[in-house]
Amino acid sequence: MFINSMFSRGTIPILSTVMDLRSRNQDIISSNIANAETPNYKAKKLVFEDQLREAVFGSKADKELMPMAKTHPDHLPDNGLIPFVPYIDLQNNQTVRNDGNDVELEKEMGNMIENSMMFNAASQIVAKKIEGLKNAIREGK
C-alpha cells in the first residue's frame, strides 16, 4: 500500500510524466529539423508546460479567487492522475522562406538543447529519489 502510493502520487509520477512529454517534444523538434528543407513545412511544438504547471500547482485564477483545502478524502477527486492533455501546435514563426517553410534551424537547435537539459534534470531528480528510497530500505529507517 505505502509503496504503491509512493509511485502513484507525488514527485516520481509527475517527473515520469515530464520525461515522457520531453521525449515526445524531442521527437517533434527532431522532425522540425529533419524537415528544415521541405517546402511548405510548418514548424510544430508540443504545448504542455503551462498546463502541467497548473495541474501540479493549481491555476493562478484558483489562487486569486480562494485557495482550496482538502479536509476530507471525498471532497476532491484525487486519483493521482494529472488532468491535462498536451497538444501539438504550429510555432507560427515570423520568418517564412520563399518555399513556404518556416523552420528556423538555430531556434530548433536551441529548443533541442533546452529540452534535453530539462529531460536530464528530471531524470537526475528521479534517480536521486530512488537512491534515497534504496538507502532508506537498506538502513531500515
Quick structural gist:
This protein is mainly α and 141 residues long. It contains 5 helices and 2 strands; from the N terminus they run H-H-E-H-H-E-H.
| Low-pLDDT residue intervals, each spanning 5 or more residues | none
Count the E strands.
2
Q: Order of strands across the biggest sheet?
A: 1-2
How much beta, percentage-wise? 5-15%
| Shape summary | elongated
Provide the structure class: mainly alpha
The percentage helix is 55-70%
Q: How many helices does DSSP assign? A: 5
Order of helices and strands: HHEHHEH
Q: Could you give a short account of the major beta sheet?
A: 2 strands, antiparallel
Q: In angstroms, what is the radius of gyration?
A: 20 Å
Termini gap: 18 Å
- Average pLDDT metric: 84
